[in-house]
């Protein structure tokens, strides 16, 4: 008798439904509030408008946060992808 649960795929492979494609996830959160952290440590919070294959990001209603303090408000902002450390979907407010 195997120690694996009955519904698990053979050889420890992840089930197809468990796999998450990053580009699919990003397209699902277009229009949602996000946090974008840059390699420099600067954080932008805004509404995700678009993201491309190079991870270039367009945001609306953007706030720039430096050292935990809001520094500037931008209407629209464009972030070049090679500066992005991560994008995080924020909880809807």
From TrEMBL:
Region annotation (Disordered) ranges: 1-23
Name listed for the protein in its UniProt record: U6 snRNA-associated Sm-like protein LSm6
Domain Sm intervals: 21-93
Domain of life of the organism encoding this protein: Eukaryota
Coiled-coil features, chain-numbered ranges: none
Family named by the database record: Belongs to the snRNP Sm proteins family. SmF/LSm6 subfamily.
Species assigned in the record: Cercospora zeae-maydis SCOH1-5
Any GO BP: mRNA splicing, via spliceosome
PANTHER family, per database record: SMALL NUCLEAR RIBONUCLEOPROTEIN F SNRNP-F, U6 SNRNA-ASSOCIATED SM-LIKE PROTEIN LSM6
CDD domains cross-referenced by the UniProt entry: LSm6
Molecular function as annotated in GO: RNA binding
Cellular component terms (Gene Ontology): nucleolus; P-body; sno(s)RNA-containing ribonucleoprotein complex; spliceosomal complex; U4/U6 x U5 tri-snRNP complex; U6 snRNP
Subcellular compartments: Cytoplasm; Nucleus
Keyword annotations: Cytoplasm, mRNA processing, mRNA splicing, Nucleus, Ribonucleoprotein, RNA-binding, rRNA processing, Spliceosome, tRNA processing
Described purpose of this protein according to its UniProt entry: Component of LSm protein complexes, which are involved in RNA processing and may function in a chaperone-like manner, facilitating the efficient association of RNA processing factors with their substrates. Component of the cytoplasmic LSM1-LSM7 complex, which is thought to be involved in mRNA degradation by activating the decapping step in the 5'-to-3' mRNA decay pathway. Component of the nuclear LSM2-LSM8 complex, which is involved in splicing of nuclear mRNAs.
Chief localisation class: cytoplasm
Pfam families found in the cross-reference section: LSM
